[in-house]
Specification:
Layout: H1 2-91, H2 99-126, H3 129-145, H4 147-156, H5 163-209
Helix pairs in contact: 1-2, 1-3, 1-5, 2-3, 3-5, 4-5
Length: 210
């Protein structure tokens, strides 16, 4: 009788221990599974954050490119406008001197040159440094280009000019015109390279993000 009771008790205890061990193992497995899921979620969230950051950087580079392109185009447009007004001023050197027409065209040319300087300042803000430097030199060349016709017309207002004065004017006007064209040829490829650099960087980041 006693032996039967002991056997039954041992069987009950063994069952309880087995059930407890099974529950412990099951709980441990579930805890590890949950921890693995949490780690996976953290990795996914981190990956999403990195992708969002890359996309933000790409958008920023595109925004920078658009701003630079607008600044560069603004300088080229302003320079072209200024050259047009200077050319109108230069035409007066071939006609009898007229003070009113001189004042009007001189004022328009000066305003246009000032617009070029303002456009160059915008380029300086947008950068990069190399483009900004050449942009400033481009504006300076435009500024110098206005001086020969103004000087010539001021001399013309005092009376007929000598051949030496005429030659000096033509020489200085040709020199400043060549300087303007030379600066334009320097500025354009530098500006294009600066824009391409931003585009290439944005494309590379987009590919990495994909």
């Amino acid at each position: 009788m006693t032996s039967t009771l002991m056997t039954t008790a041992i069987a009950i205890v063994g069952t309880l221990l087995g059930s407890g061990l099974t529950a412990f193992v099951t709980a441990r497995v579930e805890r590890r599974k949950n921890e693995a899921l949490e780690r996976q979620q953290i990795r996914q969230e981190a990956a999403q954050e990195r992708a969002a950051l890359r996309e933000l950087r790409v958008e920023h580079r595109r925004w920078r490119r658009d701003r630079r392109q607008a600044a560069y185009q603004g300088l080229l447009d302003a320079a072209l406008e200024a050259q047009g007004t200077i050319w109108q001023l230069t035409r007066l050197t071939l006609e009898p001197y007229d003070q009113h027409r001189y004042d009007v065209r001189r004022g328009a040319a000066i305003d246009a040159v000032q617009a070029v300087r303002q456009a160059a300042t915008t380029v300086e803000l947008e950068g990069p440094a190399g483009v900004a430097q050449v942009g400033a030199e481009y504006a300076e060349a435009i500024d110098r280009h206005i001086h020969p016709p103004i000087q010539h017309l001021m001399e013309l207002s005092k009376g007929p000019l000598t051949d030496e004065q005429e030659d000096r004017y033509r020489s200085s006007a040709a020199e400043t015109a060549a300087l303007v064209e030379g600066m334009r040829r320097r500025f354009v490829p530098l500006a294009r390279a600066a824009l391409d650099e931003l585009v290439d960087g944005a494309d590379q980041r987009s590919q990495v993000a994909a």
